[in-house]
Design a protein that fits this description.
The protein has eleven helices and twelve strands. With about 260 residues, it is α/β, with parallel strands linked by helices. It is globular and about 65 Å long.
């Protein structure tokens, strides 16, 4: 495993219960892991724990077999690209400048930008269908445009693993599908991928494995067909639903109207 979290337990200050309770997961090159679950189930906390941003009550995180604490923050940033769920734009930059920030783990604080850095920024923007935005200022972007720019910034790091927390939020259907296609292509090219998402149906079609969290605990893990069953999902989401196969065999989840559930 490139990135491994083992028996991770974490609690936020003053919280009565654990935000993560003995969660184990691993990221491998060439494989996409989808982390799903209801609001407040611990999905974002798991991402933060894997990045070393949450104090652990117990458990360990390792990168390339070494404890994460032995790595510098700059080396972690060079190896792992991350897109958080929320981010405030504290000051306005041109889009190309914002994406260039992703090169800093490789540049260092004082090194000049090179042609290779500018090429990496262009490739990242083009892959996220955001090259046409390069001269726009970040405070003029729509929510979906800003999300694509944030993904491009992570790609500009040229990481070996990509952790995405709700990356399709505020995206329309086309860009939502393009993002899953992009992540699929990156993972197929050897990247290790983790995506936190509420998109059960899209993650079922693109992910190699899934983890279903509820109350900070793993209540389902494995291939999508093993996790996305009505027996497993209904008590987690507290709503009646049906699961039916799509033409590629992936399970697709249909929330039911109360009248449909009764019948």
């Amino acid at each position: 495993m490139m990135l491994q979290g083992t028996n991770l337990s974490a609690r936020y200050p003053g919280a009565p219960r654990l935000a993560l309770d003995a969660v184990t997961c691993g990221l491998e090159a060439g494989r996409l892991l989808a982390v799903v679950g209801p609001n407040g189930s611990g999905k974002s906390t798991l991402v933060r724990a894997l990045l070393g941003l949450v104090p652990l009550e117990s458990g360990t995180v390792s990168l390339d077999g070494r404890p994460l604490g032995e790595w510098s923050r700059q080396d972690i940033a060079a190896a792992i690209g991350a897109v958080s769920q929320r981010e405030e734009t504290l000051f306005s930059l041109r889009v190309r400048e914002a994406v260039m920030l992703g090169r800093y783990p490789r540049l260092g604080p004082l090194a000049p930008e090179s042609a290779a850095d500018h090429d990496a920024v262009r490739r990242a923007l083009e892959r996220c269908d955001a090259w046409d935005l390069r001269d726009r200022r970040t405070d003029t972007l729509s929510g979906g445009e800003w999300q694509r720019v944030r993904v491009a910034r992570a790609l500009a790091q040229e990481p070996r693993a990509l952790l995405l927390d709700e990356p399709t939020a505020a995206l329309d259907i086309r860009h939502e599908m393009e993002l899953f296609e992009l992540v699929h292509d990156l993972v197929s090219g050897g990247l290790a991928g983790l995506i936190v998402t509420h998109e059960l149906n899209l993650s079922a079609r693109y992910a190699d494995r899934m983890i279903l969290l509820d109350g900070g605990r793993v209540v389902g893990a494995g291939e999508p067909a093993a996790v996305l069953t009505d027996r497993v999902l209904a008590p987690v989401f507290r709503w009646p639903l049906a699961v039916t196969p799509w033409r590629d065999g992936s399970p697709q989840v249909v929330p039911l109207k109360p009248s449909e559930a009764e019948s």
